[in-house]
Specification:
Blueprint (H helix, E strand, L loop, with lengths): L5 H7 L25 H8 L14 H14 L3 E5 L2 H10 L7 E5 L4 H10 L6 E5 L5 H5 L5 E7 L11 H10 L3 E5 L4 H4 L9 E5 L13 E5 L1 H14 L5 H11 L2 H19 L5 E5 L9 H7 L6 E6 L2 H11 L4 E2 L9 E3 L11 H6 L6 E5 L5 H15 L1
Parallel strand pairs: 2-3, 2-4, 4-5, 5-6, 10-11
Antiparallel strand pairs: 1-7, 6-7, 8-9, 9-12, 11-12
Bound molecules: pyridoxal-5'-phosphate.
Length: 391
C-alpha cells in the first residue's frame, strides 16, 4: 500500500495490525519465528515463500522501516543495518571484490575515509579520490576495474554539492554502481535514486532518528543489488536491532515537519551570521553566497539543517567560541532536535592528516552547527553571546 505524498507514506506504512487491534505498531522483540509445519520451515529456508525466520535475516519492525524508507527514497528494496558505518561498509564489501576500484568524493565522513584507505585495501580493493568541486576530473579517474562511485552531497562538513543528474548519466554511461550517502539531506530534501543512484545509503542516527537516541543505518536500492547485499548481510550479521527499527520508523512519521523547521532555522541563522564582522565566511547551500546555490536549489527541496562558519582568529578563537556556548551542545552528533556545535579539525576529522583536511576545506577555525528545533531566537542569542565572548 502506498500513497501519493511523502508525509502520508511516512505515517501510514505500518506492520499489519494484530488480533489485539493496537493502533501503534508493537515492538517485536524476538530472535526467531516459529514454523507452522516442517514443510513451511523447509519452504522458508528454500526461499520458496516469504516470511520471517530469524531476526538476523528479517523482523517485522525492520521490514516496516525498510518498506517506509523505500517509499520515501523511491527504491525497490533494502536492508536496515546496526549503524550508518555498517551500511557504508556492507554496501561496498558486498558488491566489490579483490581487484575492483572505487571512485569516491574526497569529502566523505571520517570513518568512510578509514574504510576506503585502511580497510578495503586489505582485500585488494583500491580507490581514487576526486574533488566534489572538480566534476571534470571524475570521468578521467575511471579505470577498467572501476565498479562504484561513492559520494555524499551535501558533503560533511564542507557542504559542497554535487550534481546528481550529471553523475547519474556518467555512471550509466560507464555501467558503474552509483552509491550515494544521503544522510545529510534525508529523503525529504533529495532522492538520489530519481537521478540514477543504484544504491542509497544512510546513517539513520542523524536526522532520521532526529532526537539523538539510537545508532542505525540503511542500504536501499534496486532488487538485484539488494539481493547480493542481503546475502552478505544475512551471513555476516550487521542487522539492526528491532528496538532501533521501531524507534526509527516512528521517527520517520515526523521527518517532514522536523526537516521543514530544521531548514527554516538553519537559513535564518546562516543569514544572520553573514552580517557579523567576527566571521569571515558562512556556508549554507540555500544562501545566495554558496558557490553552488543554483544547483542546490535545483536538486534539494530545502537547504538542510547544517551551517558552517569560519571565525576570524582560527583555532584559538574556535575553541573559545565552543567553550563560551551556554545552550548549544558540544557533541559530535548532528541532526538532533538540540542545536549541536562541532569543531571538525579537532573532533570528527582529527584522524585526517593536515593536508587531507585542507583538501576538503576543513580549516582550523571552521565550526559546524547542526541547527536544532529550539526557538531560533534562543539559538541566535546563544551563538551571538559566544561569539562576543570569544573575540
Ligand atoms: C554519521 C555519519 C555516518 C556514520 O553513521 P553512524 O550511524 O554513526 O555509523 C556516515 N555518513 C555520514 C554522512 C554521517 O554523517
Amino acid at each position: 500500500m502506498s500513497y501519493e505524498n511523502f508525509e502520508t507514506n511516512a505515517i501510514r506504512t505500518q506492520v499489519e495490525q494484530t488480533e489485539f487491534r493496537e493502533h501503534s505498531v508493537p515492538l517485536y522483540l524476538t530472535s526467531s519465528f516459529t514454523f507452522e509445519s516442517a514443510e513451511q520451515g523447509r519452504a522458508l529456508f528454500a526461499d520458496e515463500i516469504a516470511g520471517n525466520i530469524y531476526t538476523r535475516f528479517s523482523n517485522p519492525n525492520n521490514s516496516e522501516l525498510i518498506e517506509k524508507l523505500c517509499l520515501l527514497e523511491g527504491t525497490e528494496d533494502g536492508i536496515a543495518t546496526a549503524s550508518g558505518m555498517a551500511a557504508m561498509f556492507v554496501s561496498m564489501a558486498a558488491l566489490l571484490q579483490s581487484g575492483d576500484h572505487i571512485i569516491a568524493s574526497r569529502s566523505v565522513f571520517g570513518s568512510t575515509h578509514q574504510i576506503l584507505t585502511m580497510i578495503l585495501p586489505k582485500w585488494g580493493i583500491s580507490h581514487t579520490y576526486v574533488d566534489i568541486t572538480e566534476p571534470e576530473k571524475w570521468e578521467a579517474a575511471i579505470q577498467p576495474n572501476t565498479k562504484m562511485i561513492f559520494l555524499e552531497t551535501p558533503s560533511n562538513p564542507a557542504l559542497d554539492i554535487i550534481d546528481l543528474e550529471w553523475l547519474g548519466k556518467l555512471t550509466k554511461k560507464h555501467k558503474l554502481i552509483l552509491n550515494v550517502d544521503n544522510c545529510f539531506a534525508t529523503p525529504y530534501l533529495q532522492t538520489p535514486a530519481k537521478y540514477g543512484a543504484d544504491i542509497v545509503t544512510h546513517s539513520a542516527t542523524k536526522f532520521i532518528d532526529g532526537q539523538g537516541r539510537t545508532i542505525g543505518g540503511a542500504i536501499l536500492g534496486n532488487k538485484d543489488l539488494i539481493k547480493q547485499i542481503r546475502f552478505f548481510a544475512r551471513h555476516t550479521g550487521p542487522a539492526m536491532s528491532p528496538f532501533n527499527a521501531w524507534v526509527l520508523s516512528k521517527s520517520l512519521e515526523t521527518l517532514a515537519v522536523r526537516m521543514e523547521r530544521h531548514c527554516q532555522n538553519a537559513l535564518e541563522l546562516a543569514t544572520y551570521l553573514e552580517t557579523l564582522p567576527q566571521i569571515s565566511k558562512v556556508k549554507y547551500p540555500f544562501l545566495p553566497s554558496h558557490p553552488q546555490h543554483d544547483l542546490a536549489k535545483r536538486q534539494m527541496r530545502l537547504g538542510g539543517g547544517v551551517v558552517t562558519f569560519e571565525l576570524k582568529g582560527g583555532l584559538e578563537q574556535g575553541k573559545k567560541f565552543l567553550d563560551a556556548l551556554k545552550m548549544c551542545s558540544l557533541t559530535a552528533n548532528l541532526g538532533d532536535v538540540r542545536t549541536t556545535a562541532t569543531h571538525p579539525a579537532s573532533m570528527t576529522h582529527s584522524k585526517l592528516k593536515e593536508e587531507e583536511r585542507q583538501a576538503v576545506g576543513i580549516t582550523a577555525g571552521l565550526v559546524r552547527i547542526s541547527v536544532g528545533l529550539e526557538n531560533i531566537k534562543d539559538i541566535i542569542a546563544d551563538i551571538t553571546q559566544a561569539i562576543q565572548h570569544s573575540s
